[in-house]
Amino acid sequence: MTRIHLRINGREQSGDAEPRTHLADFLREEMNLTGTHLGCEHGVCGACTILIDGRPARSCITMTAACQDADIRTIEGYLDDPVMAALRASFKKHHALQCGFCTPGMLATAFDIVTRLPDADEARIREELAGNLCRCTGYAGIVAAIKAVLSEGVPAPAIRPIKRVALAASAEASPAIATSSAPPTGAVEPTASLEGGVTLSRNVAIAVSADHLWRELKDIQRVAAALPGAAIDTVTPDGHVKGSFTVAIGPMRASFGGNAHVIYDDASRSGLVRGSGGDRLSRSMAAGEVRFAVTPAGAGHAMLAAEIVYRLSGPLAQFGRGAVVADIVDRLLQQFTANIATLAQGGAVSEKPQGGFGLFAAAILSMLRRLLRRGQRRDQR
Ligand code: FES
Ligand code: FES
Questions:
Q1: Is the CB of 362 under 6 A from ligand 1?
Q2: Does residue 328 have a pLDDT over 50?
């Protein structure tokens, strides 16, 4: 048993959980919060969706032990909230529920949509709702209810503002990219919206010259080889790439097939990759942008700065804690920069990309280590 401390619906709560206990069971059985429904228990239907640290997440595939000190909002936690009051009234008016089994999860996702995307149109609402299944209504009423709340003006939420994911790595300075060294983006066709996306950055010093490292980065095939899970089908001379990217997050495995465009600016030794794609099996979409820049770092060294902005939508986006997904992407970025360093120094990187479960386990471990350190610091005080 692990002693778990959570902030549930604004109140500090503690309880004991086995390592295998998922959060939905913990909430329902230990906290008597039975408004969180369980449908598939496989992360597919969205019935168990709640807000964890301000993000919609599937509590049936979120381990309670990975949520130490997290901020949890279940359907019971909006009683005095004017946004949820407007959504409830609108769901009733537009016949957005019948049996009501999916409704707690639908309302959690709807709350996220109206507070995060005040300008969402019907297509965006449907995209954001893609991870919540309803067997009764046919969705028309649900979409109409959310549209009505958006068009009537969303009131200010009474619950505390959404806390966004903040990883230590994100706070790293990225001077080469923060300056105007990144290439102009006008030459690249627009990709899917990255609004509400997560940004992560990494800098790594490599013992080769800046020119050498830049030549390495201009070989798209080698760059793809450095990114675990990436595979290229075709590359055109003007940098249009067709390929796929495979990632496994916990029990979900997705292979995103799509297109990307790579542009390089030799003058500033910086580049930009923009791409988007979808995974048919999990019905998830991903869009992302990677900016990178190379600067001399003295004594035969070059600094590689890389920044990634990504946005996932569909079921994969709602897997577990948003922080776990961000941590996995941060690990991919870390491996990518390390592999580029290895290739630039004449080494070889593993042809077989590191398995997604390895990344998942490493992300959970690092999160637990951070929590342990935080606990030790608290005990020392
Ligand atoms: S119960 Fe279906 S996603 Fe959690
Ligand atoms: S209202 Fe019955 S499943 Fe949605």
A1: no
A2: yes
